[in-house]
Amino acid sequence: MLTVEPASRFLQPEAFDPSRLMARMGNPADPWQSRVLRSPSKRVALLKARQVGGSTVLVARGLHRAAYFPGSTVGILSPSLRQSARLLRRIRRALVTTPHVTATNRATNTLTLSNGSEVVAWPGAQPDMIRGDSLDLLLADESAWVLPAAFTATLPMLAVTNGAAVLASSPGGPSGFMFDLWNDDETEWERVTVRASDCPRYSPDALASLRRSLGETGYATEFECEWREGANSVFTADELARILGVDPVPDVLPGEDPLPDDDAEFVPSLVLPSLSELLSVIRSDERAGA
Description:
The chain is an alpha/beta fold.
């Protein structure tokens, strides 16, 4: 007799709607977040102000793909390995909202799940270390600072699987992959702009204070999503989180492994000599001294 395994977990609303999953994570979606999470487009680019919730959207989208599509591969691309690993860590922590899957490893730059899915973190500054995999979903955070060569390496990985890509970033200077697609009138990418004034968690007083502190150019870049010559981030994400009274994402929680340094994967391993080799050296020195 043919039996069918119960699949009630796939009948849950969040299985069909990543924005519902984001709400289960404790972050009810703003309208623009729901738009990005529910978009049918295979290519979505999000130009956003600082601290509006862009990374949370990437976490929800990545967790949804990995948890509800068994055997999926999700790639995370950021300017550095540390940034990518932090986003992967947030996906790992959010697994409590999808109890039908569990993590099966503790690596800092790769997350494997009990349903066969995998999430991999890559350093965008080292595109030669990325090639080789196929992807179902590419997540790119702070895309304006990722080398164009990294997108050349990763986007072809979506071709065979007909996978999707979601890019999120505040503006950088007027160059690079994100800048080019944002100013291409014929691009296939769905483009979404989210200014600080679109975020209900910013008060008018807080924005006025930031405008006075940063000046017009800094404020226009960081909070009004304008591409400016020579633009650079005035505050790090953690510094801005402290200013706004928002808890930053800690690097390490109790029981977790520390995050890798950006070049940690490429430091040669130290090979220690065996005891017999040490004794041989000591005896040779003794004979030479005699």
